[in-house]
Amino acid sequence: MKRSCLSIVFGVSLIFLAHPASAQSPTAKPTPSLGNAGSTDKAAKAEADRIAKERREQARSLLISLASDARSFRDQTLRARTLAQIADLLWDTDVERARELFRKAWEAAGNADQEIAQKRQEDIQRQRARTGGGYAIPDYPNVRGELLRLAARRDRDLGEEFLQSLKAEQQGVNGENQRLTLARELLVNGDPDRALQFAGAELATINAFTVDFLSWLREKNTVAADERYAVMLDTAARNVLSDANTVSLLSSYLFTPHVYVRFHGGGMSYSMMGSGPPPANVPPTLRSRFFQTAATVLLRTEPQPSPEIQTAGIEDQYLVIKRLSPWFEQYAPRELTEAIRARFEALGAMVRDSVRRRDPNPKENNPSETESANREQAMLDKIEHARTSDERDRLYFDLAQEAARKDDPRARDFVSKIEDSEFRKQAAAYIDVTLATHSIRGKKIALALELLQKGELTHIQRVWLFTQLAKLMVKTDRDKSLSLLEDAVPEARRIEGLDPDRPRALLAIANALRLVEPTRTWDSVFEGVQAANSAEGFTGEDGNLNIVFQARGFSSASDKPEPDFDIKGIFTLLAQDDYDRAVDLARGFQGEAPRAVAVISIARAVLTQKSVLVPKPPPAAKVP
Q1: What does R_g of the chain's alpha carbons equal in angstroms?
Q2: What is the DSSP string of 355-411?
Q3: CA 428, CA 430: separation in Å to the nearest integer?
Q4: Does residue 271 sit within a domain?
């Protein structure tokens, strides 16, 4: 209050001081000098360039100092990540130092992955002991995978060096998956040429990973993807080991990108590695080439029913042809279509009735309203005939999950009917946070507000919902947004001081304040720094909104990455606003991890910023 009053008094004083000058010469209008304006602009640009250069030097100095500290970090994950990110930022100005830091980071990353693997096993054993066998664990970081992607973007040879090291350790299998994962990362980051270099000879193998890579590549480089797909088709046609499932995999590139269907003894399995419509502008010659390969493989041998021969292969072939038949009928040459149709009829006489009735296409993730209503009614019918309360409780929980998937508030009503109090409590917490995430994703403000009033949410979940809802409403109702953030602050302070969720909550509030009331952002971050210094295990990154459920032998765990809980984003923005103040704030972190993340975020903001805005000098005083 005192600061505000002083500002008002000072402003009034300026008005009184300025008034006499204005009164003496009310019509004075100095003529602007074009020459002086040009000189002023040049001077301002020169000053901006000087400040930008100075700040870049300061940022590099910060990174070099941090790299020296990081070599002694006890936390191997922190050491690896810190050194790798510093190497990435220094690469353009000091390649040799950066390459050395990458190698130091790789050594630490190997130790980190071993520690993480051990922790993962311990978590599994602990949950199995508590639940009687079931477990649900979150994703654990793949530190060498992270480092590999950073290094490969900078230097292909260095990436190959790390990749070969990983392949040798993992005996090839996971190493090659890492290669294709890395290639896809390079694709996503807009470097298809280097992505192809890393994918390399692996594209000679036909499996879901290689076909999927080509589907992603086609979005960036259609010609290159189609050329390599054509090579796959020729390889499959020549290989005597190619079978119906090979054809099914290859069909995904043209008809169901990122969805892969396999058949095993008349059963079906499928995997989804992404989503997207069928590719556009497929050359007719490429499509014809697929049908020729498919016919070559599917018609290669005449099946002979015999008691001595297992029918699994026949049933798999029958289901693949059944799945491909609509495409054959629509696109393939008539002679091939007729041959496939005849094979299908012949196989149909050999397979079981249950196989003939089977739908060879995976179910849609989002069933129709009619199917959903039928399933709900079927469960309600089962509840009426349930013999035990345990059976009813499980069915009500299933109904609640079904309703939550549709963002239906009745999910909470179904949970309330669960008789077992502990099961009901666990189910309510799980359903409410699920509904909360859906309400924000679907911008369903009324549902979100209801959950804030009645939902069984933890403190961090409530802060997350407050802040996300405030950001959603800022353009339509700024006062309500500000009110929500006012309520979020005491909610964050209710989190125990040692809990790392407390600084995460305060950072989330700071991120929302950037949109709603920017002048209060610094104070919120400062409180977050203080909270981080008391919180055990707060790293400043990998913030997640955790959704966990464990009861009655059922386990589920999912982590929704939440950047607002992390240091990186907010310190990047603060560095753009006031570099020196951001550095001072970063130095306030006592923990190695949050301080490292904050310093790297500030340095990245400076080194990637194209220019520095310098305030224009005040206009020259008017001459009476």
Answers
A1: 31
A2: HHH---SPPPSS--HHHHHHHHHHHHHHHHT-SSHHHHHHHHHHHHHHHHHTT-THH
A3: 5
A4: yes
**How many C-beta atoms lie closer than 10 Å to residue 165's C-beta?**
15
What is the band of 136 on the pLDDT scale with cuts at 50, 70, 90? Answer: low
Whole-model pTM: value is 0.71
What pLDDT sits at residue 7? 39
> Could you report the per-residue pLDDT of 199-252, keeping only the tens digit for each?
887 888 899 999 999 999 999 999 999 999 999 999 999 999 999 999 999 999
Exposed, middle or buried: residue 74 (CB in 10 Å: 0-12, 13-18, 19+)? exposed
What is the domain extent for residue 242?
Answer: 208-362
Q: Both 483 and 598 in a single domain?
A: yes
Is 407 within the bounds of a domain? no
Residue from 577, 572, 566 nearest 600 by CA? 572
DSSP 521-539: HHHHHHHHHHHHTT-TT--
205: left (phi over 0), alpha (psi -120 to 50) or beta: beta
Phi/psi of residue 335, nearest 5 degrees: -65, -35
Residue 86 placed within a domain: no
Weakest mean pLDDT among 15-29, 82-96, 417-431: 15-29
Contact 495, 477 (CB under 8 A): no
Pairing of strands 259-264, 544-551: unpaired
H or E element at residue 268: strand 267-272
**pLDDT at 364 > cutoff 70:** no
Please report whether residue 520 resides in a domain. Answer: yes
Res. 620: pLDDT tops 80:
no
- The phi and psi torsions of 387 (rounded to 5 degrees) equal -90, -25
Burial of 121 from C-beta contacts in 10 A (0-12 / 13-18 / 19+): exposed
Count up the domains in the chain and report the number. 2
The number of beta carbons lying within 10 Å of the beta carbon of residue 366 is: 10
* Residue 1 CA, distance from chain mean position: 43
624 band by pLDDT with thresholds 50, 70 and 90: very low
Residue 71: what pLDDT?
93
